[in-house]
Amino acid sequence: MASKTQPVHLVWHRTELRTHDQPALHHAAQMAQEQNGVVVPVVVIDDHIFARPDLTPRRQAHFLENVRALRESYRALGADLVVRRGDPTAELARLADELARASCQVVGLHFICNYTPYAKERDARATQALQERGAQVHSYPGQYTHEPGEVQTNEGKRYGVFGAYRKKWATLPKPEIVEAPDKMAPLPGKIEVGDIPRVEPEIKLPEAGEAAALGRLEWFLKNGESTYERTRDEPGREDSTSRLSYYFNIGALSPRLALHRAQTEKWRAELTWWDFYADVLDRNPDSAKQEYREKWLGFPWRDGRDKDSKADLERWRSAETGYPLVDAGMRELNQTGFMQNRVRMVCASFLCKHLLIDWRVGEEIFRGLLLCGDRSQNVGNWQWVAGCGVDPSPYFRIFNPTSQGEKFDPHGDYVRRWLPELSDLPAKNIYEPWTMREKPKRYPAPMIELSAGRDRFAETAKTFLKDKSAGEDK
């Protein structure tokens, strides 16, 4: 007599390495219970993604350590996490065939939607492969509070301005938070769970896993949220930022849960940016590599490849510009994989505007160094600073690193933390060490006069935009 086949529901984790507020897991567990089946969670380490130059050792290690933590979350529930490496479609199909040989039938594939062009193509291929094996495929929202395309005008169009998007976003019903299962059935006994490789990062990583992410959220809600609107631009304050971005990026923390726990309007508004830039890139995928605003296409950026611009780029990347706030920011980024938001804007502005180097070059460098290097957020922020993105900063707004430091970190606490060679300087000189009679011996002179860099960019942009406008009028 043939043995009865056990129904299996695969939960495919990609950029949502958590069990809390995980709609794919929640619904798969419900269906498995109704069918007397079992849930098999799986992560496929995608060789296509891991081969990208921006998936640096620090980012690979950050992802893998969070996969390791996700496995422990599942083991605490009584289950386990299957890990495979290769092409996701091939590996999922192979797993389904392996389960079939163990008297199991994959009846469902469940995953949270991703929205990059590659992700859409990958998911379509995987969907076809599993459907050919008799599985029903279920996709769910969950990477964002409101998915790309969900926030629309009354005429059914998408927004191109953050303020209007934010107002409409705030009026929409917020999704309910779904709980993780209390317990789960063990995996079918003959299935190999697979090893999780280790990659040695060149920096110390933040604590991995959803428990650490939830703990950091609680810390911020208690210690930072109430003063966030007033202190968020102060890089010298440890509690001025949530430091949750590198958990949002890999889904160790649900942004929907963060919104439900938020107590202030300013923090809710900041969480809206996560959705907004994802929406922008979803409807304009070309903006990942070219200026969103057409009038900026063809702008004569320096590319960082010729001798002079390459040397300038290297000084910026190596924290040797001679401007303390810029150098402190780049040193923090190089050493930790994180940079405070106000400082990010200053560093990006210095590269694009004072040095006239292409925003794409800076965006790629940031994406490789930031543990929270989400493509849509990174592109959106760089284009905002450069003046060529959706709802951008005016092109003539050029951040002055000296006055920005004096305004937001007047005592120089942030600079002293990351540039110990300047730690003994008095506050009045900390942002202009070149003005001292005895200049710091281990710190470089400014690589460019701020006024010269500012004027070069302003004149270049003014001439280019004028000529572009004249050409369009002909």
Count of individual helical segments: 19
Q: Please give the largest β-sheet.
A: 5 strands, parallel
Please name the CATH topology of the largest domain.
Answer: DNA Cyclobutane Dipyrimidine Photolyase, subunit A, domain 3
The side-by-side strand order for the widest beta sheet comes to 3-2-1-4-5
Q: How would you spell out the order of helices and strands? A: EHEHHEHEHEHHHHHHHHHHHHHH
Tally of structural domains: 3
Helix coverage percent: 40-55%
The CATH architecture designation of the largest domain is Orthogonal Bundle
Q: Classify the beta-strand content into a percent band.
A: 5-15%
Whole-number average pLDDT? Answer: 95
Taken from the alpha-carbon principal axes, the silhouette is: globular
Q: In CATH's first tier, which class of the largest domain applies?
A: Mainly Alpha
Q: How many strand segments?
A: 5
- Provide the gyration radius in Å: 24 Å
Overall structural class, as computed from helix and strand content, comes to alpha/beta
Please mark out the parts with pLDDT under 50 across 5 or more consecutive residues, or reply none.
Answer: none
The CA-CA distance between the termini, in Å, is 82 Å
Quick one: CATH superfamily of the largest domain?
A: DNA Cyclobutane Dipyrimidine Photolyase, subunit A, domain 3
